[in-house]
Specification:
The structure is a homodimer of 160-residue chains.
Chain A (H helix, E strand, L loop, with lengths): L3 H22 L6 H12 L4 E2 H10 L6 H13 L3 E4 L7 E4 L7 E5 L5 E4 L3 H13 L1 E14 L5 H5 L2
Parallel strand pairs in A: 4-6
Antiparallel strand pairs in A: 1-3, 2-3, 4-5
Helix pairs in contact in A: 1-2, 2-4, 3-4
The first copy, chain A, binds a DNA duplex (25 and 25 nucleotides) through α4.
Chain lengths: 160, 160
DNA sequence: TTGTGTGCAAAAGCTTTGCATGTTG
DNA sequence: CAACATGCAAAGCTTTTGCACACAA
């Protein structure tokens, strides 16, 4: 079996190829900033917000601007390498999407913890509703909001 | 059968009772502004944004501030009389929810048209995921994004 | 060389907050 | 009358835009 670090390297190189193809297809320029942002995202853990990505790159002394971060995030959403979420707040959260299973989210309204889950029925709903309402469904967003019942939930620990 | 205007009046009076009970329960004040905003929402059509509600009340020469509008919208969300949505933009949209069937949304990515649909499977997903992940699910948000295939879709008309 | 992309800072847009005033309970 | 709610304007935060410069193609 392939090791986790090796798999990460493989994914990073694959997403670069996909991004390159996308940039070529639309005659967009292959700038070092764009690749640096893509790589930063794929080496980071799960969900992140634009500002955190910007700060993190700045901390590594990488010269980049917010404008470029936002511009590149939009490109990456367009070529399906990341997904953009709005978990009820006025703040976009992003997530890498290549090489990971499609999933939806369950958000704790008390501690804002985000869990992921998969359910095949959502695909059925998408295709049925697309047919009935005559839409070509491109993507979806399903968020469940609730309270964690486990005793070790972060917000329960906090309130002890 | 009861007429549509009569039904609206009935709903308006019912939501006022519910709101009153909520305000009493939490020892909040029954101000004229709060009732005026509630009434305005229930007499208006479907989805709206906070600013539009504010402008609309101003145009009727009702003296109200944005602060109060936002404050009241939050109260109404808390007592389940309206629901708050984020259809992919950094802009909250609201919708009255009492007396209307629970539904989800299908958004056209080209013309931003919003359609509503119901599917019982979403309830099954909610209860199953709540059980498995040990969450008490309070509410959910399911948005499908796609392109309208009908020839009379607004964005198709626009581009003619 | 040409024009797209970038950095920087300012602006824009939605929402929240602070403070003095008004009004509910 | 005491505390809470309101109006107004300013501030806060995320995101977008304008402009001069840099650099990919």
């Amino acid at each position: 079996m392939i090791s986790a670090p090796a798999k990460l390297e493989q994914i990073v190189s694959e997403v670069k190829v996909i991004f390159s193809a996308y940039l070529e297809k639309f005659s967009l320029r292959k700038t070092p900033e764009r690749y640096a942002i893509l790589e930063e995202i794929y080496r980071r853990t799960d969900h992140f917000v634009a500002e955190a990505l910007y700060i993190h790159m700045k901390n590594q002394n990488y010269r980049v601007s917010r404008a470029t971060v936002y511009n590149t995030l939009e490109l990456l959403v367009s070529c399906d390498l990341i997904t953009k979420h709005q978990f009820g707040k006025n703040l976009a959260q992003y997530e890498k999407s290549y090489g990971f299973k499609q999933h939806d989210h369950l958000i704790c309204v008390e501690c804002a913890e985000v869990l992921e889950f998969c359910d095949p029925r959502i695909q059925q709903i998408k295709s049925m509703m697309g047919d009935i309402l005559e839409f070509e469904i491109i993507h979806h967003s399903l968020n469940l909001f609730g309270k964690c019942l486990k005793t070790d939930c972060e917000h329960r620990i906090k309130t002890n």
